[in-house]
Each structure stands twice: as structure tokens, then as C-alpha cells.
Amino acid sequence: MNSGALDVIEFLLTAEIYSENRDLDENDLPPKIRQVFWHDGTIERPLRTSVETAREATGLDQPWEAVSELMFTERDTFSGSIELTQRDMAEEWFAERDDGRIAENPTLAHALSGYDGVDVDYEAVREANRPVQSDRAWIDSLLEEHFDEEDEDEDGESMLDLVDIHAPEEVELTLDDLVLTEDQEAEIHKIVKAIEHREYLANIGLREIGKLLFVGPPGTGKTSTARALGYDLDLPFVEVKLSMITSQYLGETAKNVEKVFEVAKRLSPCILFMDEFDFVAKTRRSDEHAAIKRAVNTLLKSIDNISLIQDDVLLIGATNHPDQLDAAAWRRFDEILNFPKPDEQMRSDILRVITRRMRISDFDPDELATKTEGLTGSDLRLVLREAVLEALTENRTELRQEDLIHAIQDFEERDNLKDLDMIDGDHDALVAGGDISGHSHDH
Ligand SMILES: Nc1ncnc2c1ncn2[C@@H]1O[C@H](COP(=O)(O)OP(=O)(O)OP(=O)(O)O)[C@@H](O)[C@H]1O
Ligand SMILES: [Mg+2]
């Protein structure tokens, strides 16, 4: 039996069992199945199964054809619906052929655990299923419900333009892909525990917790770590660049700040990530517009008024310029997390992690680490990309250690270029044929 039929029967069974059993809730549906049933922030019973929804949930072009020969399926060509005619027959058929799906589908685990050979623990299966907050479809349907036309201002700017929202399922890097210092790991562990035990913390009156500031030079993993945390904790990730809030196109700045916090509270539990936090400091000090000052004060007040314990919002700020933050800003974060440039050991580990899926002959990350003093994780990624592209010009998909060494040299030369003064300089590098680019041009 092909797995297409199993896909479709799983879909039909799940929908039917879920529709009938009101003890089950959204978290009992596997993400790929429930994604097709969201509407205005809820999933309404009964779940109607059709060729269309089956196609979306299974990814099969012709879901009906995959099951049309089975005795217990039926299609209504007029309405496009597909259904099971004999549920018990379908259950038996599925339980007999199950290849591990029941162990990943809480609804089926709940209904089919009595069948021969089906050995699953419903509670455990439900625990392992990703919760609704991790679904893009859930976030979208919630946003649809909360932000209608009224939320657009005169210029047609919606508050959603201020923020970038990522569903956990969309995060590309997980904590496993990041090389962290011991301090960073300990801090992250602490926050994960605090989130798990929110209720306890609220009960003992400890509310001033859950505001982190990530501090470090560009490319050291601040954004990636915050996102990875969202993935690990299954929390939507609301990202806002503070400079965006005062964009000239976006009407009243103070109001925009309030809107961002409103979005976060509506999406909670979630992570609110505020990048470029030093922006706050800059504007407080200078004689900027009164409107911007007001905005910054609103921002600080909003930060005071949001809490992990009460609102289920984990606030993470990030900055490249901690020296520019004043006491008023520092005071609002209960944990400061340092993101230093990686040392030799970390560079070696980062190289190992980012090359996981590549083939490299004579690969020696330790050697490369000694040659990359001062480079960040993001620099190392660039180096690697360069090496891959170079090798491709020779039609090679397997790298060699020399390719990487070469790419490091190139990278350093490029880095030098960045520091040249392009107008006054009479450096060789500014003249075509100079040895930096390595290419010469005829004029
Ligand atoms: N410690 C690390 N381990 C693995 N990868 C890393 C590490 N640090 C950085 N990277 C990689 O470098 C890239 C850039 O990192 P990221 O955007 O998180 O840096 P950042 O600190 O937010 O920089 P910026 O201050 O410019 O916003 C990412 O693709 C990330 O995977
Ligand atoms: Mg960043």
C-alpha cells in the first residue's frame, strides 16, 4: 500500500474522530492537519474534509485517487467532499498498516490505542505534538481576527508593518545550530525554567523577570539566538527594529510604540524582540524632535508595563552599542547577556556546525580557527559561502581545506577594503589592477 493512501486516511480519520470527540482540542491535531482548518482564530467542529483540504494537508495532487479503491471511502463529486463510510473498518485498516503515524498524532493515539499492535501513550504523544502557537496559520488567523481595516491609519499603514512576525515552525536555526558560551547557555536555561514555572513565580510575587538584553558586536548570534529560543519554546517571535518605529511614513511615533506592545500582548505567549535598542539612547540624548522623545518615554513605560509573568511576553532587547545606553534603559532589563566575538575554540565549533551538511576533504576546523582571529559567526558563514561558490566555478561540490584557507584570505582582504577611504585615498586598491581584487580591467 502506498503511503499516499495512509496520508489521506490519516487525514480523514483524524478529522472525523476530532469532530466527534469534544475532549480533544486543537493541540490534539498534528500541525499539518490543523493548518487547513483555522478560521478566525478557531477551529470549528465539524471538520469538513474535501478534496481541497485533503490536498492541502497531505501535499498530494490527487488525494482522492490515492484512496478511491478502498471500500470505506466515498467522494461526493458535486460538493467535492471526501468521507469515510465505515469508520471502524478504516480504523482497523489504518492500525494494521501504521508506520509510526499514530505515535505522532494525538487524536489517533487517543482513539486507536486499543488496537492490536498499537502501542502508544496518548499523553506522551500529545506532549510531543507542536502546540498551536507554532503554526503560521494560527498566527495569521489571529491577526486577521484582531486587525481589521480600522487599524489602518490615514496613510493606509497597518500596525503590522511595524513588526515582523515569525512562527516557530519557520525558524531556520535552532539552539542546536548555535555555538554558545557557558554563560549564554546558563542564562538561556534559566529563562526556559522561568517560563516553565511562570505560575509559581506569579504566586510568590516575583514578577520582575523575563526582560533580557543581548549585547555584542554585529554577527555574534543575537538575533539567531532569540529566534532559536522562540523555536525551542514554541513561541511566536515578534520582531521590531526600533528605528522602524519612527519611520517618517508611519504617522505618530508614540502611538506606534504602543501598537507594537499591543500586537505582542494579543499574540501572547510570545517573544517580543527589539533590535537596535541603542536607538533609545541616541534619541534621549540628542535634541531631537519632541515627538521622538515622547516615543522613547512611551517605550520605556511600555516596557515597565509588560511582563512575562502577567502578560506571557518575553522581552528581548539587542544592541551593538551598550556604551550608548543610559541607566534608565539598563535598569529595565533583569538579565544582560553578553555576545562576545567567538574565541578559537568557539570558532572551531562554529565551523563544525555550519559545515555539517557539506563534504570537505582534509577538513581541519582547528587549523582554520587559528587563522580567523577576530571573525564572528556571521563572518565565518560568509567565508564558507565564498569557498562553496569558488569551488562551484570549478564544478566541485566537495570542498578542500585549501578552499577554506583561501576564502579566509579573501575575506580579510575584503575586510581591509571596507576600511579604505574611497574619496581621498590614493591607495593601490582603488586603482583597477591593484592587487586587492585580483582582477584587472582594461580602460
Ligand atoms: N555563535 C554562533 N554559532 C553559530 N552561528 C552563528 C553564531 N554567531 C553568529 N552565527 C551566524 O551568523 C549569522 C548572523 O548572526 P545574527 O544575525 O544572529 O547576528 P547578530 O548578533 O544579530 O548581528 P547584528 O548585531 O548585526 O544584528 C547567523 O546566520 C548565525 O547563524
Ligand atoms: Mg541581529
Biggest sheet strand line-up:
5-7-8-9-6-10
Q: CATH homologous superfamily name of the largest domain?
A: P-loop containing nucleotide triphosphate hydrolases
Low-confidence parts: 433-443
Question: Any idea what the CATH architecture of the largest domain is?
Answer: 3-Layer(aba) Sandwich
Class per helix and strand makeup? alpha/beta
Give the N-to-C terminal Cα separation: 68 Å
Mean pLDDT: 86
- Please name the CATH topology of the largest domain: Rossmann fold
Query: For the record, what CATH class of the largest domain applies?
Result: Alpha Beta
Q: How many β-strand stretches?
A: 12
Please tell me what the overall shape is: globular
SSE diagram, text form:
Elements: H1 3-20, H2 31-34, E1 38-39, E2 42-43, H3 51-58, H4 63-67, E3 73-76, E4 81-84, H5 87-97, H6 106-112, H7 122-128, H8 136-146, E5 164-166, H9 182-196, H10 198-203, E6 211-215, H11 222-232, E7 237-241, H12 242-245, H13 253-267, E8 270-275, H14 278-285, H15 290-305, H16 308-311, E9 313-319, H17 327-330, E10 335-338, H18 344-354, E11 359-361, H19 365-370, H20 377-393, E12 398-400, H21 401-418
Parallel strand pairs: 6-9, 6-10, 7-8, 8-9, 11-12
Antiparallel strand pairs: 1-2, 3-4, 5-7
Helix pairs in contact: 1-5, 6-7, 13-15, 18-20, 20-21
Bound molecules: adenosine-5'-triphosphate and magnesium ion.
Residues 173, 178-179, 216, 218-224, 320, 339, 342, 350, 353, 376-378, 381 line the site of adenosine-5'-triphosphate.
